[in-house]
C-alpha cells in the first residue's frame, strides 16, 4: 500500500525537515496515529511530492525528514469539467469522485435550469465546500495536485472556456456521436487548466436552446455518453473515465 499523503504549504518541501502542524499535523498525529519511523508522502498541491520518514510525533504535530522529492508532470491533455450545480449535497459528491478520478479543474456552472442557486453568502460557503472536498479527495487519492475549483461561472464564462479549449464537449443525449468516438486533440495541451479538453455537464432539467446555441457557436461538439441517462452528479466522472482511457492518461 502506498504511504499516506499529507498537504503542506507552498515552499515547505524545499526544506530537508518539515514540520507538519495545524489541522494536517493533528490529523496525522491523532487520527492517523502516525508513528516515528513511518514513511509518509508530503505534497504541496501543485505537483511536488516528497517521500519522508517521520522523526518525531507530538500531540498535534509531526516532524518529517525528506528522503527524496520530485515534481510530477501535469497530465496531458488537461481535462476540465464544467459542472452544472446539482441538488443538495450531490455537488460535493461529484467533486469528490471526479477528483479521485483525476480531473484537473472543475468549474461550477449556474445553468438556467439548475434547481440549486448559489446566491450571496451561500455562494461563498458552497464554493468553500467544493474546494475543501477537492482538497480532501486529492489526499485520499494520493494525488500531488489538487484540482482547481473555479469561481461560479455564468453561461458566457463557459462559452469562453469552450472557445479557448483544444476540444470542447457538451454531453447531450440528442446526438448520434458517442463520446468514445469523438476525435481527440493531438499532442500536449499546455499548463492552463482551461486548455486541453473541456467537458460540459448539464443540469437535471437539461440545457436550454440558448445555451446549446452558444456552445455550438463556441465550437463545442455534442457527445452521447451512453444508452442510459446519468444524473448530473455522476455524468462528469463517467465522461472523465472515458477520456482518460482514450487519451492515454490511464
UniProtKB/TrEMBL annotation:
The keyword Protease does not apply. Residues 76-244 form the Ribosomal RNA small subunit methyltransferase E methyltransferase domain. The keyword Methyltransferase applies. Residues 20-64 form the Ribosomal RNA small subunit methyltransferase E PUA-like domain. It is found in: Cytoplasm. SUPFAM superfamilies: alpha/beta knot (SSF75217), PUA domain-like (SSF88697). Specifically methylates the N3 position of the uracil ring of uridine 1498 (m3U1498) in 16S rRNA. Acts on the fully assembled 30S ribosomal subunit. It comes from the Bacteria. Pfam families: Methyltrans_RNA, PUA_4. InterPro entries: Alpha/beta_knot_MTases, PUA-like_sf, RsmE, RsmE_MTase_dom, RsmE_PUA-like, tRNA_m1G_MTases_N. Belongs to the RNA methyltransferase RsmE family. Keywords: Cytoplasm, Methyltransferase, rRNA processing, S-adenosyl-L-methionine, Transferase. This is Ribosomal RNA small subunit methyltransferase E. It catalyses: uridine(1498) in 16S rRNA + S-adenosyl-L-methionine = N(3)-methyluridine(1498) in 16S rRNA + S-adenosyl-L-homocysteine + H(+). Its EC number is 2.1.1.193.
Amino acid at each position: 500500500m502506498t504511504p499516506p499523503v499529507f498537504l503542506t504549504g507552498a515552499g515547505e518541501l524545499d526544506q530537508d525537515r518539515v514540520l507538519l502542524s495545524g489541522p494536517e499535523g493533528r490529523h496525522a498525529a491523532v487520527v492517523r496515529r502516525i508513528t516515528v519511523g513511518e514513511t509518509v508522502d508530503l505534497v504541496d498541491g501543485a505537483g511536488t511530492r516528497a517521500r519522508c520518514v517521520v522523526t518525531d510525533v507530538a500531540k498535534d504535530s509531526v516532524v518529517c525528514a525528506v528522503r527524496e522529492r520530485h515534481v510530477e508532470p501535469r497530465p496531458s491533455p488537461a481535462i476540465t469539467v464544467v459542472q452544472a450545480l446539482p441538488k443538495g449535497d450531490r455537488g460535493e459528491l461529484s467533486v469528490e469522485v471526479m477528483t479521485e478520478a483525476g480531473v484537473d479543474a472543475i468549474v461550477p456552472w449556474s445553468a438556467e435550469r439548475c434547481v440549486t442557486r448559489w446566491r450571496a453568502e451561500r455562494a461563498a460557503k458552497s464554493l468553500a465546500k467544493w474546494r475543501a472536498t477537492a482538497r480532501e479527495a486529492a489526499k485520499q487519492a494520493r494525488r500531488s495536485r489538487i484540482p482547481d475549483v473555479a469561481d461560479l461561472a455564468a453561461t458566457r464564462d463557459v462559452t469562453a472556456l469552450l472557445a479557448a479549449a483544444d476540444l470542447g464537449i457538451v454531453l447531450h443525449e440528442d446526438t448520434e456521436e458517442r463520446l468514445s468516438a469523438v476525435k481527440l486533440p493531438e499532442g500536449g495541451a499546455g499548463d492552463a487548466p482551461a486548455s486541453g479538453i473541456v467537458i460540459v455537464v448539464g443540469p437535471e432539467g437539461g440545457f436550454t436552446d440558448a445555451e446549446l446555441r452558444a456552445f455550438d457557436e463556441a465550437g463545442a461538439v455534442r457527445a452521447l455518453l451512453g444508452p442510459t441517462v446519468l444524473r448530473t452528479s455522476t455524468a462528469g466522472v463517467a465522461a472523465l473515465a472515458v477520456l482518460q482511457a482514450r487519451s492515454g492518461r490511464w
